[in-house]
Structure to design on (293 residues):
């Protein structure tokens, strides 16, 4: 079992070039949601980096930050000055100055460099030079993130197993109380009939029908059986090698629904109090499950 939260960082370097990747992960009900923070000159790398992440993670909200440094040689090779373009721009600036009656000062290097097209990227742009390093750094950061998510997941698993045992104990206490609750329901019905001044014997057909009706209405056997079944599935999912987060989330909803139905069926105070405790534990389970991948 893995947590969806964690952090990973890794650096890859070669021949004076360096890329660092940092990943912060938090929980998310969606599939993997990624936000990349990196210099725009590396944007062309994003599609492949996304594919790498999607192959390794199934859920979580990720912020992935890339930073880099280039060697002097690489910096020299990533851009060049288009001399022909610079000459054309210089002539155009002189002609403009003459036409407008402006000062005949010569255009400066700074003037020329600010014109788009004078400096142009070569085939060795940063993204091309750094592609392999970026992928290596990303895989390293994902490995560190995975290790942290495994540690957090082990702690989550232990907590969820413990809470599952508490839920199972509460369910069995409710089940043990069921017969007594029905007897109390029967007694209350008899007292109400007596209070109305109606004389009915225990073998009276009308009384038997009423008893049967209330017994069926207050019967929580079905809910108890389903809760026991859900708890078996719950423990299996907690030991699953797959990513159980979504299934655990759904199972938590189903257990909560059964407890609500159970509480609505019975008027027994003890079962009602046990049901409230049960709802509290299931709510805590559902909150923890939100962190499971």
């Amino acid at each position: 079992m893995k947590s969806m939260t964690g952090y990973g960082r890794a650096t890859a370097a070669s021949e004076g070039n360096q890329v660092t990747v940092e990943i912060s992960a938090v929980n998310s009900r969606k599939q993997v949601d990624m936000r990349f923070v990196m210099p725009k000159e590396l944007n062309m790398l994003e599609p492949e980096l996304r594919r790498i992440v999607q192959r390794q993670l199934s859920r979580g909200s990720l912020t992935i930050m890339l930073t880099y440094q280039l060697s002097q040689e690489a910096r020299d090779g990533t851009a060049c000055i288009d001399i022909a373009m610079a000459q054309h721009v210089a002539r155009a600036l002189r002609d403009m100055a003459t036409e407008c009656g402006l000062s005949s000062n010569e255009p400066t290097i700074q003037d020329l460099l600010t014109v788009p097209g004078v400096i142009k990227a070569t085939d060795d742009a940063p993204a091309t030079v750094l592609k392999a390093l970026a992928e290596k750094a990303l895989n390293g950061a994902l490995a560190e993130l995975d290790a942290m998510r495994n540690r957090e997941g082990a702690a989550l698993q232990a907590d969820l197993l413990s809470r599952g045992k508490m839920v199972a104990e509460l369910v069995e206490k409710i089940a043990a109380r069921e017969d007594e609750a029905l007897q109390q329901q029967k007694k209350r019905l008899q007292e109400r009939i007596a209070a109305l001044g109606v004389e009915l014997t225990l073998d009276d057909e009308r009384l038997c029908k009423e008893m049967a009706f209330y017994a069926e209405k207050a019967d929580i056997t079905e809910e108890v059986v389903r809760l026991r079944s859900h708890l078996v599935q719950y423990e299996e999912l907690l030991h699953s090698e797959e990513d159980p987060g979504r299934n655990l989330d759904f199972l938590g909803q189903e257990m909560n629904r059964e407890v609500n139905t159970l509480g609505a069926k019975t008027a027994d105070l003890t079962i009602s109090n046990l049901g409230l405790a049960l709802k509290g534990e299931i709510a805590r389970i559902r909150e923890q499950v939100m962190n499971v991948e």
About this structure: The longest helix spans residues 126-195.
